[in-house]
């Protein structure tokens, strides 16, 4: 079967699905309209499915004529709390936006579902279709896993993609892979620096948490610059800082919130430990006190090298060899696809969706973000061929 031609045949339908989904963006784990739309399409395709998996997750199952292993194809389907400014005729008007391409991911997976269902007599095993909410936070993969999405039948491998311009060099329709670390963890931390409030003209009568905070902020950055192995990337960003209400009053406390990104689990744990040690030593040394909370969020995303190598051979059937690139370094963004890849081998690849000639140049999470719809058939074809080839090879 010619997967590229079959995908081209339903290109217009994939675009229609994407545009319909684009108009109903929902955020977080609460995606009832999106889940209902996906279920409606699976119903029309006569694919058995289950709703309410880990909340609003939807799972379809395509059984091949011959028994075998099970591969999962995953697409996230939530949007962002961003007011859209694309000017598209199908732009969302509910105050939210698909500013990260999840509408396209879902549409391309629906396209793969249609082709696989129509050709299930050629499938040796099963294909599980995972439509997941909450990727942008608080995370929908883990609740779906906890609810048994990787069981009945047991999932043996997993494949997923992310459209857009994850690297500035990406061209439309290109496939970018990694044979190991592709994305970082997504952690957060909270620090409350406690002092003793007093008059701003009499600092000696109190303990200034703002002065302490200044020392803490400077010192925390030395974890990245002086304590991590230089070849292991890491990011520590303070994105929220609040303290005081008046210009002439030293406040009782200052609150700091930030994020940590690392691609190595050991370095991740080291950063979490060192933040508290530095905060403790500085605050105590300056007569203050502190509270500290560290939240381990999505783990680093690590692709399976063997699965990725096999997928590259698959991709050569869909795109030209010069359109397959290897990421030289991971991106520090996070993705909860990492939870699936912790449990079963698989790969998560980046799929070029920007297009400078069409003015599709805005980054993810931007109110003007868009993707080139002309490449959708390729994304569908890569998922279909990836599933068929893996099941054929691993009977």
TrEMBL record:
Residue stretches in coiled coil: none
UniProt cross-references to PANTHER family, sorted A to Z: METALLOPEPTIDASE, PUTATIVE (AFU_ORTHOLOGUE AFUA_6G09600)-RELATED, PEPTIDASE M20 FAMILY MEMBER
Record GO biological process: diaminopimelate biosynthetic process
Species classification: Bacteria, Bacillati, Bacillota, Clostridia, Eubacteriales
SUPFAM superfamilies: Bacterial exopeptidase dimerisation domain (SSF55031), Zn-dependent exopeptidases (SSF53187)
Name listed for the protein in its UniProt record: Amidohydrolase YhaA
Cofactor(s) the protein needs: Mn(2+)
Molecular function terms from GO: metal ion binding; N-acetyldiaminopimelate deacetylase activity
Transmembrane annotation, as ranges: none
Database matches in InterPro entries: Amidohydrolase, Bact_exopeptidase_dim_dom, Peptidase_M20, Peptidase_M20_dimer
Co-factor note (free text): The Mn(2+) ion enhances activity.
Residues the record lists as binding Mn(2+): 100, 102, 136, 162, 365
Region forming the signal peptide: none
Highest taxon, organism lineage: Bacteria
Annotated EC: 3.5.1.-
Keywords, in A-Z order: Hydrolase, Manganese, Metal-binding
Gene this chain is encoded by: yhaA
